[in-house]
Amino acid sequence: MADKKTGGGGNNDGKEKRRKESILDLSKYLEKQIRVKFAGGREASGILKGYDALLNLVLDNTVEYLRDSDEPYKLTEDSTRSLGLVVCRGTALVLICPQDGVESIPNPFITQ
Questions:
Q1: CA 5 from centroid of its chain's CA atoms
Q2: 76, 66 contact by CB (below 8 A)
């Protein structure tokens, strides 16, 4: 006969549930201008108003950078379109960076 585990039910094998920690800390970019690149090549910039654990973003005063009609992989910086308040789905994001520059971060995958 198997021993019953104590600790409040469920089959968690005596392990506590750990809250998943996000690799990115976007709190320092709240209320600041950021630029995002999406799967498929679209790019936009806006003021980061909020985010969640899945990296869904809320951007305000968002501007999308349009592609050159002759070269689909080339952005035209002078050709933009205003989108206003936007919710960006985290699964579609490829790149998130501050608009005013890039900051180097330590590699989160290296164990110390």
A1: 39
A2: yes
* Residue 66 host element (H or E): strand 57-67
In angstroms, the CA 44 to CA 66 distance is: 9
pLDDT tens figures, 21-80? 667 789 999 999 999 999 988 889 999 999 998 899 999 999 998 877 676 666 666 788
Strand partners, 75: 67
C-alpha span between 40 and 101 (Å, rounded) = 23
Structure tokens at 67: 């592609």
How many beta carbons lie within 10 A of that of residue 102, not counting itself? Answer: 8
